[in-house]
Amino acid sequence: MNSKRQPNTTATATAADFLMASRQCEIRNLEYFLQMGRLVQSVGNLVHGLQRERGATNLYLGSGCQRFARERSVILKENDQLAAIFRKALTDIQEDLTTHPVSSSLLGHIASALHSLDQLAGFRQKVAEQEAGVADATDWFCDTIHQLITVVFEAAETVAEPSIAGLLVAMVHVMNGKEYCGQERAAGSAGFSSGHFENALSRRMMHLVEAQERCFEVFVAFASEDSLALWQALRSHPRELEIERMRQKAVSVGPYKSLDREMADRWFNLMTDRMDDLKKIEDSVENAFHHRCVERYTEARHSLAHHETLLASLEQRNASTMPVLVVCDNGVDASTADAWAGDGQQSGRSIFDLVQEQTRRLRQMSEELQSAKEALEDRRTQEKAVLLLMEHRDISNDEAHRLLRKLAMDQGKRLPDVARALVSMAGVLG
Amino acid sequence: MNSKRQPNTTATATAADFLMASRQCEIRNLEYFLQMGRLVQSVGNLVHGLQRERGATNLYLGSGCQRFARERSVILKENDQLAAIFRKALTDIQEDLTTHPVSSSLLGHIASALHSLDQLAGFRQKVAEQEAGVADATDWFCDTIHQLITVVFEAAETVAEPSIAGLLVAMVHVMNGKEYCGQERAAGSAGFSSGHFENALSRRMMHLVEAQERCFEVFVAFASEDSLALWQALRSHPRELEIERMRQKAVSVGPYKSLDREMADRWFNLMTDRMDDLKKIEDSVENAFHHRCVERYTEARHSLAHHETLLASLEQRNASTMPVLVVCDNGVDASTADAWAGDGQQSGRSIFDLVQEQTRRLRQMSEELQSAKEALEDRRTQEKAVLLLMEHRDISNDEAHRLLRKLAMDQGKRLPDVARALVSMAGVLG
């Protein structure tokens, strides 16, 4: 904090000190977000790598270790590097994260994610020894990727700057949607390669498609211009139509009529291309996030410097005459304030304005922040509701999601509202 | 952070580092709350002093500077000390507040409060020169006290520990209720001493009574046992009945039939005793808050120490064999986790448990925190709604509050829900 203003030498705290402290706090947060951006980027890349490894591993195991061995070994090496970069990014902000009370919850989820990654070597060993089946592999990757994405969700929770928080919300939802897309690729591959879809598998496909849509809806609401353009390009790509047709087969064919197994490779390639395009969208959001941070950071530094000079001059002038103006930011008639305007008027008015301007700015920011926080809260509530349903009804994650959607449709309500009602009800029922 | 665990000497971040960091973060927060408690206490005392000065100043001005001169001069001296203690408390945590990104909004409101206090001397000058009327004085004190109470609200927003946050919510609502009580004392004194209540003044009395009730409802929902007992004692005190009767006169008599002016002193004394009892309740909440912080702090330190020894021993044991267990805290079938349990089983299971326990604890805390956050959010939303109504309809703060209550009654909804609907509507209407 080169720009950190020395607290005044007098023993007591002054309004000017805390006005500056308030702005310095904003700058500290922006510095922290810049580092957080690098961490988020490394998570995104690692998740993409693990999704590729999941796909390759499933093809490898599915083919009795005949196919994809070489492609897979390349991916493994790449992922070791991506994991190292992720750990490096963590090490870089470890100091910041652990010496400033940021969010014990964020730190706890980082610990979970790191612990999952620690298992990667052992898991690959099982694969090499063919002690792991396709289903096991899928579950293991899904869980580890979930841990990593949760870190980004928790990071987004700690952001206090509206436009920046919005971009992180967009990023984490495109990440999450892309992961559902990856799970759909796995489910589809299992079905097509076996030549038929059990009902359970068809239902899972439907669930994953719907889950993706919900994520992308939120993404669109918070996306940057560039990423939105890329998203529209992806949507209008001819590939989407072909995927749609294959999805129809997957959910309509049923367990008896069998499918051409050749479709498996086609499906895998289509979904892989789709995920690569989604990664490009993710990168463009990350890019927008970074530029927004730098932009806001520069603004904040400038306005801090401006305020420092202004206050310094005011404090000199007021060494003798204290400013005599009331700060009222609570809707109280401002004439009250003016009523006490005395000799200090000029300087009083200035400090008064600075303090009031800051209060107004912060209030406006907290209002703008609302929608981003709500998007994150909605997702949190839905996860709670799903866990509740899984425990109370002893059903699977998929089934709980489906049940939640059914409740929403039957009641003609928004999914988050139903989830909220459910969670609060459970609280009442104990 | 004497207990701060040195990050491992290897270049990369480990799960154990961040597990410890997560717990250390909790401890940092508790240390911060302990200091915050002292600040809140100094605010409570200063607010009480300013409320006494407001009462004395009004009696002094109301009597043409004949009465209460001596009592008032004593209060002024006491308040200078209380203000000094408040500034001292701020200076003590200034370092913490300004070097850790706590909340730029909290810091901004501290700046506002300090700036209001800077006007105290100038304002007293006006009173001495009789350039300030009773109404001006009341407005000035109301605004400054509002600034101070807002600091406590903002401080409560930064608390992440459920039971501690709940006590701060109780404290700030009893503070706010007590201030409405003080404003009712002023309004009543004006009416009784003038011998009659204009309709506007009667309406204001009604508004202030209802506003108090709403604050005390929230207080009761979050109060500690002791403070709740004190509250019930206050409620059943014979004084309440006499106040009720005088309130009835104030709202029913109307501008024509005149009242016995002797009632003014009686009213002032009754309400003053009531405010002193409310202060005692406030102190007992503050007391409970302090003890809860110390309690939680000690717990946290113990469990951190326990985890450090445990992890240290585990890391030695695992120097060679990496633990090979998946962390799954997302409702994924735990058998997946066990599936990869290998030689590292024992140690893996242990670290796995520690990490999972922390995730579970934090999730539970964030759920418990919900209700406290909602109480604060409700208040924030209502303030927004009131400001909106004041601006759009060009009405006073009181009228806006009344209108909001009327909307709630007409729609048979909770006040916070109506306020939320109003704010969101305004957002849509732009």
UniProtKB/TrEMBL annotation, chains A, B:
The answer to keyword Cell membrane applying to this record is no
* Signal peptide segment: none
What InterPro entries would the database entry show? ANTAR (IPR005561), CheY-like_superfamily (IPR011006), Nitrate/nitrite_sensing (IPR013587), WH-like_DNA-bd_sf (IPR036388)
What is any Pfam family matched here? ANTAR
What UniProt keywords apply to this chain's record, in alphabetical order?
A: Coiled coil
Superkingdom in the source lineage? Bacteria
Concerning Gene3D superfamilies, the annotation shows: Winged helix-like DNA-binding domain superfamily/Winged helix DNA-binding domain
Query: Do you know which PROSITE patterns this protein is assigned to?
Result: ANTAR
Question: What is the name attached to this protein's record?
Answer: Nitrate- and nitrite sensing domain-containing protein
Q: Which residues form a coiled coil?
A: 355-386
ANTAR domain span:
362-423
